[in-house]
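Researcher: First entry.
Model:
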Amino acid sequence: MRTKTETQKRKNVANTIIIALCLALVAYIAKGCYDNNLAEKKEAAAKEYRMNMRKKYSIINEEKVGTTTKISIDIDLKQRLNKVELEELGKFIKEEEAKYFKIAYIGYYLEELGYSNGYWATTHYTPTMQVWISNK
């Protein structure tokens, strides 16, 4: 038979375990709510990013060779971009418009230069990105 002290110790251990489990459950639930809010914020930020990037250009022409071999995309830029911005836009276009193609040629025209003068800049994926900006 157990003594009162042993019984009390067992009750204290059981109570400690129950409290720890409750705290873990509350923390798990709170983390889940936090993760959901964070995921929603990330999704909203990604959507806004895509919308802002799409405002910078419009596709003039697109030519595909095979279903995954090569794509050439002619882009009309709204304004001049520096090399870093052009790299970011090239990555965005590759991901959005040419995701499944091994080779992607992306050529950029500027309205101010006209379309008969050739590309103002390019970002080619063969398969790594190469950026070229003319001195026009």
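Researcher: Second entry.
Model:
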Amino acid sequence: MTKSNTWSDPVQEIAVRADAPDISIIIVSWNTRDLLLQCLSSAQDPQVVGALRLEIIVVDNASTDGSAEAACSMRGVQAIALKRNLGYGRANNIGLDRATGRYLLILNADTILLPGSLRTLKEFADRTPRAGIVSPRLLNEDGTVQESAFRFPILAMSAIDLFPLPAWVPGRIRSWLTSSTLNGRYELAHTANEPRQIDHPLGAGMLLRREAYLQCGGFDPKIFMYSEEIDLAIRYARAGWECWQVPQSRVVHLGGMSTSQVPLAMQRELWRSRIYIYRKHRSRAATVALIALLVVAQLARLVTASVKRLLRLISREEASKQRRLARTLIRVAFSS
């Protein structure tokens, strides 16, 4: 990736107190009250806490479901209620700025910390001084392994996303492509038991070393939602910090519980963020190619929706939904 001189936010160094928490946990919430309470309960479970000194900070993005009030009512939780939704990255930055811990854990509200997960992350970070980012293995609700370790984006990844293989292609081929390095995956990601160095984790859970945060800053505030962790990992890597995943640390991630509430808006933000990442960190030619892929895919979606509706293969509502999504993403492509 080409080097960029755009946004960076090194943080003014503040001396860490001798009695500072081992880990500050920062949780951003948006209309996920019950899940937030479940996450906070797991963070206060004695089997999770162990001998660690924890600081828990919730930053609520103007929820309307009582999330902020519920967090405020919990003992040992600092809650910051924002008056408007600032986006995931900016809200996390507010929590990071407030945090006093030696390590800083970014944690989604739809996660559940499992016993030993925090201790394992901290112990690995303690013995790996160049580890600026350390992530756990994420699990689905049924205990299966979730994709949570990725390579930095390349055009092939977007092409696979935008132009999925048709259903008549054998499933083993489609499965191989989805889990291949072309799609940003690592070999044996689901079975590896030893820590491995990766490009970036899924942002649902990642431990930041305070020294790395002080040098490189938090999330880019220009990104409202999605790809924040990719930008952060690129900046940390360029500053010489390593990114690791530690499979022995396990966290359940339910996934997409906030974003599923507004799927069209989230698709818009997803592609707006992807294009922004390319503009910031990749060449102009790569950015133009990404935009071209997006536009062609959406033109194909428009045609396909119309043809399927004409043949009565989909409902009028589904055809309208597909056309609306295509038009939205075409506008994103030309306005980003």
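Model: Note on the second entry: The radius of gyration is 21 Å.
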